[in-house]
Amino acid sequence: MRKITCFEGDGIGPEITEAVLSIIEQLHLPLEFEKYDLGLTAFEKNGTLIPEDAVESLKRNKVALKGPCTTPIGHGFRSVNVQLRLLFDLYANVRPAQTLPNVISKYDHVDVVVFRENTEDLYIGEETVISEDEVHAIKKITRKASERIIKAAFEYAIENNRHRVTCVHKANILKKSDGLFLSVFEQISKEYPEIQSDSLIVDACCMNLVMYPERYDVLVMPNLYGDIVSDLCSGLIGGLGVLPSCNRNDEIALFEAVHGSAPDIAGKNLANPTALLLSACMMLDHLNYHTEANRVRQALYHVLENQKLCTKDLGGDALCSEFAHSIIEYLR
Ligand code: NAI
């Protein structure tokens, strides 16, 4: 049995995880999910956000499926997601935004993959209160972190028959920090002459993505822009409920939905499990179960064709568990 670490997380996490695991079970693969509490749920039970046994499990298994974790805004603990990414040095956050059949959105042909640097930029959390009226935050960009995320984007482009990698930055204003990221991009792009490369200022990128999303292929950028631009991309394909992601380094990969713990609908069986299900498909691909990953995607697309069988956010009236059940019925 191949063991996989599983964190249900907070809010809607347990509901969508249960839905996804019940679908994966139908594939009868030799996979065993080791479940651990994480985040607020773990804190409330044991007084620790990231329990040691959960850390050990991920170190051992090297692959995890994760539900969202709650982070209070403006006070309290530091984001569990950010902590996990730093703890395991999961430097690449890969977020593929592809148009899904029958999911209502303004566009038909979106197929963009965002590579977000995951370990530095403003997310290092170094904020200094200068006075009651002034706070400074540090934006950290290093050559090493820029090199590895940019290389990962080009390698992905080659492995997945992509044609272009675009560097997204704000080097016109942040000449030294984003300037370094851009110059590393320009250097590394020379090692991949078969892939087209260009660069774009982040504000122009946002406007262009909204106007001509079909023009973009693989995008690579520092942490903060990646966070914002990938949510924008989820809006291009039908919302936060459908965007999957992977946080990885060269050894460990953690798959999770891009959305958060959705406290407004938690515990009501209303959540859409699609983003976590597509993240699980990325995980199956990572484990070389390509046929099975595609079977699940086809089953999902089939159910998406009948809007009534979908969850509320997709215009249907099915509950999370009913939506999963329709996918299971198709897989049987
Ligand atoms: P959110 O993504 O949880 O929710 C935003 C809106 O989208 C809400 O109206 C919610 O109901 C809806 N939504 C999100 N996922 C959905 C789904 N699967 N099905 C249907 N509707 C869905 O973002 P919000 O409210 O800003 O954050 C809530 C908490 O989640 C915060 O504590 C935040 O820090 C955390 N968070 C965790 C992430 C993670 O664990 N990777 C990522 C983003 C936020």
Number of domains: 2
Number of helices: 11
Helix residue percentage = 25-40%
Mass-distribution shape = globular
- Described by its quaternary structure, the protein is single chain
Please give the number of β-strands.
12
Low-confidence parts: none
CATH architecture of the largest domain: 3-Layer(aba) Sandwich
CATH homologous superfamily assignment of the largest domain: Isopropylmalate Dehydrogenase
Residue share in β-strands: 15-25%
Computed structural class? alpha/beta
Widest β-sheet, arrangement of strands: 2-1-3-12-11-4-5-10-8-9
CATH fold-level topology of the largest domain? Isopropylmalate Dehydrogenase
Mean pLDDT: 95
What does this molecule look like?
It is built from eleven helices and twelve strands. The longest helix is centred in the middle third of the chain and has 17 residues, at 143-159. With 332 residues, the chain is α/β, with parallel strands linked by helices. β8 (164-169), α6 (177-189) and β9 (196-201) form a beta-alpha-beta unit. The chain folds into two domains: 1-93 and 242-332, Isopropylmalate Dehydrogenase (3-Layer(aba) Sandwich), CATH 3.40.718; 105-237, Isopropylmalate Dehydrogenase (3-Layer(aba) Sandwich). The two termini are 22 Å apart. A ten-stranded mixed beta sheet has the order 2-1-3-12-11-4-5-10-8-9, with helices on both faces. α5 packs parallel to α6, α7 runs parallel beside α8 and α10 (290-304) packs across α11. The chain has helices at 13-25, 40-46, 52-61, 80-87, 143-159, 177-189, 202-211, 223-236, 274-286, 290-304, 320-331; strands spanning 2-7, 31-36, 63-66, 92-98, 111-117, 127-131, 134-137, 164-169, 196-201, 218-221, 244-248, 253-257. 47% of the residues are buried. Residues 12, 68-71, 81, 240-241, 256, 259-265, 271-272, 275, 313 line the site of 1,4-dihydronicotinamide adenine dinucleotide (NAI).
